[in-house]
Amino acid sequence: MQFFDTHAHIGLIYDDAISQFKVIQQAKLAGVTRIISINNGLHDFKKEYAALKTTKGIYHAVGVSPSEVVTPGRDWLSVIQESVKLPNVVAIGETGLDYSLKKDDKDRFLRNENGHRIMKFGDKKSQIELFITQLELAHKYSLPVIIHNRDAGQDIFDILKTRIPEKGAIFHCYSEDAAYAKKCLDAGMNVYFSFAGNLTYRNARNLHETVMCVPHDRILIETESPFMAPAEYQKPGKKVRAMPAYLVSTAKFMAEMLDMDLEKLSEQLWTNSCRIFNLPE
């Protein structure tokens, strides 16, 4: 069996090349032979790409997330346009909308070069403009887009109805419910739903219901490393780094939910992942 981790922030697990290599080798020993590396910030993309570009089975996405909306860098557009031409860059992302933080949340603010307090995630208008620009880039360069969605489902749906890239979109670390997934599919969208380790949590009923109703050929799995470690690895009172190797735990849980043989599920997930990222099986 082989597994495909469609979303991992390898550079956030450990920031040194030796530890990253060990993480990747550990994943391969567990059967996770392909990983999409997600940049931790556009300013880190070149460093992360250089560190992993020769590592077999590692592919890359490049994009500006909502958390960078006020600090993407002056040349962010040209950085993406240059990066998508590099070998093994297979997607734009993650990008999207994040309305989850409250205005009085201290983590929502940072200081600009003039010392003024500004909203880290920007206002909705700024987020939407950045999101649309990256959807257009995905369409221009014939790449799928990886979507970050937090409490912004309706706006994302309304935008995707007319702007979804030809190569499709992935709702990473899916957080909506089954009705939302059905609405996207009924609208004829070429979308995939990627589930992280939180699928294994007891209280994640919205995710459990979604997995049960979404067509098997639209399901992906990811680790969202180093976040969202599966329940099997959680330790009370301790923060646990999720690792790409932990993907197998999520796959086993999903197979049990679907009453499906794990090997058969792994084959379906592999096919789905290769299809959306336009990679050979």
**Main beta sheet: strand number and arrangement?**
8 strands, parallel
Q: Which whole number gives the mean pLDDT?
A: 92
Strand order of the largest sheet: 1-2-3-4-7-8-9-10
Radius of gyration: 18 Å
| Coarse morphology | globular
Fraction of residues in H or I helices: 25-40%
Assess the beta-strand content as a share of residues: 15-25%
Cα end-to-end separation: 13 Å
Helix/strand class: alpha/beta
Give a brief outline of the structure.
The chain has 281 residues and is an alpha/beta fold. It has helices at 10-13, 17-30, 45-52, 76-83, 124-140, 153-163, 178-186, 205-213, 247-257, 262-276, and strands at residues 3-8, 32-38, 58-62, 89-98, 109-111, 117-119, 145-150, 169-171, 191-195, 219-221.
Describe the structure.
- The structure is a single chain.
- This protein starts with a strand and ends in a 5-residue tail after the last helix.
- 38% of the residues lie in helices and 18% in strands.
- Helix 8 (205-213) links the parallel strand 9 (191-195) and strand 10.
- The protein is globular, with a radius of gyration of 18 Å.
- The strands form two sheets. An eight-stranded parallel β-sheet has the order 1-2-3-4-7-8-9-10.
- By secondary structure, the protein is of the alpha/beta class.
- Helix 7 runs parallel beside helix 8.
